[in-house]
Specification:
Length: 286
């Protein structure tokens, strides 16, 4: 199979490995992308962060809370210059507020939600009107890319976080809690901030898909085998090394970013809470 420059570039972007290492891996794997990723990981050539899902898009993430709902949306622009525009960021915040108030998270439907008459500015206009006006004034393609509405039932608390330096990372975290006092609310926000910093992929060990876990076991087994470890010892070594995988990918297993001596799961337990759901948006990423 012919290995094209585009294939090599994609693998390099996904793994952070060198150009020649990527080409060599693709050749050995007959162009199979996933196998090539695993091969580079086995050889220790792949970086820790996969970047294949990134899209070339600018914009902001906005978060709002209303009536027990927390909403988060991503609004995209063509340039970072426009993403930093005050009017652009204002419309993003209005969109998040409308989503939280209405409970609407379908982006097409959200465009039709109208700003309430009780609001001093833009009252009576739909979000779609505001977006169209914005695009006309700023002369860029403005896209409401996605939206999430998280609903809190009795006994649940939602924490929110937006990285305000760039407004490009936002998180919603839902906790089941024995109480809904200020301490639990603070823990919920802190855990949301932790998610933004540590970027877990899964809630806990039980939420890791079986196929993902099996693939990780196979990669670790091959890597351990290449280190010359006895075949009989490999299964036990792999299970031990899976703990590192869990710490990197599972929220409850991660060292808490503000106190690495404490796991997030232990932090929540101490507060009488348990994480039941989280969502994270990073501008331009899936």
């Amino acid at each position: 199979m012919e290995i094209t420059a585009q294939m090599v570039s994609r693998l390099r972007e996904a793994t952070g490995a060198g150009m020649m290492e990527c080409k060599k891996a693709l050749v050995e794997c007959d162009g199979d992308f996933e196998r090539a990723v695993d091969l580079l990981r086995v050889r220790g050539k792949a970086g820790a962060e996969k970047r294949a899902g990134r899209a070339a898009a600018e914009g902001v993430v906005a978060v709002a809370v209303a009536d027990g709902n927390a909403a988060m949306l991503e609004l995209n622009s063509e340039t970072d210059f426009v993403a930093r525009n005050e009017s652009f960021q204002e419309v993003a915040k209005i969109g998040a507020a409308l989503a939280a108030m209405s409970g609407v998270d379908d982006v097409a439907a959200l465009r039709g939600v109208t700003v309430p008459e009780t609001v001093e500015t833009h009252a009576g206009k739909s979000l779609g009107d505001l977006l169209d006006d914005l695009a006309a004034r700023l002369r860029e393609n403005i896209v409401l890319r996605r939206c999430t509405v998280m609903r809190a039932s009795a006994g649940e608390v939602i924490g929110t976080y937006v990285h305000t330096v760039t407004n490009k990372i936002g998180v919603l975290v839902k906790l089941a809690a024995s109480s809904q006092d200020a301490k639990v609310a603070e823990v919920a926000r802190n855990v949301a901030m932790h998610v933004a910093a540590s970027k877990p992929q899964y809630l806990n060990r039980g939420s890791v898909p079986a196929e993902v876990l099996e693939r990780e076991r196979q990669v670790l087994a091959e890597k351990t085998r290449n280190e010359g470890k006895p075949e009989a010892a490999i299964p036990k070594i792999v299970e031990g090394r899976l703990n590192k995988f869990y710490e990197e990918t599972c929220l409850e297993d991660q060292p808490y970013v503000r106190d690495p001596s404490v796991k997030v799961g232990a932090l929540l337990k101490d507060a009488g809470a348990k994480a039941i759901e989280f969502r994270m948006y990073v501008v331009g990423q899936d």
